[in-house]
Amino acid sequence: MEDSILKELGRGLEGMLKVLMMGNRGDVKGGITSVIQQILKNDWQKEGIQLRFIPTYTDRNPAAKAAVFAEACIQMNAWMLRERPDLVYVHMSYRGSFVRARALQRMARRFHVPFVMHLHGSEFEDWFHSLASEKQAQVREFLANCSHVIVLGEHYKESIRSICPDVPVEIVHNAVKVPNRITSLNERENRILFLGVLIQRKGVEDLLRAFAKAKPEKWRLVLAGSGPEEESLKKLAENLGIGDRIDFSGWIDGQRKRELLESSQILVLPSYNEGLPIAILEAMSFGLPVISTTVGDIPACIRNGENGILVSPGDTDALARALSTLTSHEEMWRKYSRNARNTIEADFDENHFYRQISAIWRKSISES
To answer: The pTM is what?
Structure first.
């Protein structure tokens, strides 16, 4: 009771809700970092919220990972003692990310601060079922101690509910800022774009094989990413006889990514496991039709035959047919392009995203 009164007094004096957000450092590659950076750029003060961010993870060597997390724990403890935030908000995937989030949750509970977890890991459910019963019990306890769990779509909401039925789960789709410019077809040459880490789960090998089967005239394939499969993919491209039509551009972000999206015409993401990738939303916001797979919550955004094409993961024949269809029918491409842009404007604009996040924060604080 005394803690509650003191908290309300502090909040009234400063007039701001204090939210401590924790997650990937800005130089970590991937969608989680994109979401964190997106949240950081919003003007939360105009909504009466003081947002403080402490990075907890780097993708460098093990010593650097340990150092970053140790420093995060020190900073969190100091901020808890000095500022007493109203909420701790943590971005998480699975495996090591769960271990870190669980430690942060314990600290928040010691200070009686509500804890909201934003789950990004598309393989969370598979990982959970691979655990021993003792570890599964730890995950269930962790989820039960969350004020709210934020997930990317209905598929993941049902997944979390199957693990921990009583935890409040909220769906917040990833979102993007709608740009002023959109792409268009070129007369001489167009680009099929892949954005992401070059790992097996992303289906890049399937994309190369499908591109070799389709052999679309006046189209190049740009692989904008880096990862452990890069060298083997380059060799595969040469063996398939398409090495001269593939650009391995490496990892890109910021202005370079925007320029590449503006100058590309189709995005392909043939993943085996996903949530709702930021890359898909970014591409559609620039008017790129998307070819992807029927996994995770991708079908919540891509409507097959309206704004893109969906295929089963691993079906390189279907992927090749989709490439051939979109690269050879200009009117279809234009229709899908318009519909892709309209989908983002209607359902995935970042201003709605901010309102949803803010509402969940406030609800968690009011219920604590």
So the answer is: 0.80
Q: Residues for the chain: how many in total?
A: 368
What residue numbers bound the domain in which 41 lies?
2-174+349-367
In the structure encoding, which two tokens stand for residue 147, read together?
Answer: 């004020």
Count of helix runs (H) and strand runs (E) in the chain: 14, 12
Domain annotation covers residue 179 = no
Query: Are residue 291 and residue 353 in the same domain, yes or no?
Result: no
Q: What is the torsional sign of CA 347, 223, 29, 181?
A: negative
pLDDT tens, residue by residue, 162-220 = 999 999 999 999 999 999 989 999 988 999 999 999 999 999 999 999 999 999 999 99
Please write the tens of the pLDDT for every residue from 128-156: 999 999 999 999 999 999 999 999 888 88
Residue 14 pLDDT:
56
CATH code of the domain containing 255: 3.40.50.2000
Q: What is the DSSP string of 214-255?
A: H--TTEEEEEE--STTHHHHHHHHHHTT-GGGEEE-----HH
The overall average pLDDT reported for the chain is: 93
**Sign of the C-alpha dihedral, residues 336, 341, 343, 346?**
negative
Rounded Cα gap, residues 141 and 144, in angstroms? 5
Neighbour tally for 363: CB within 10 Å: 16
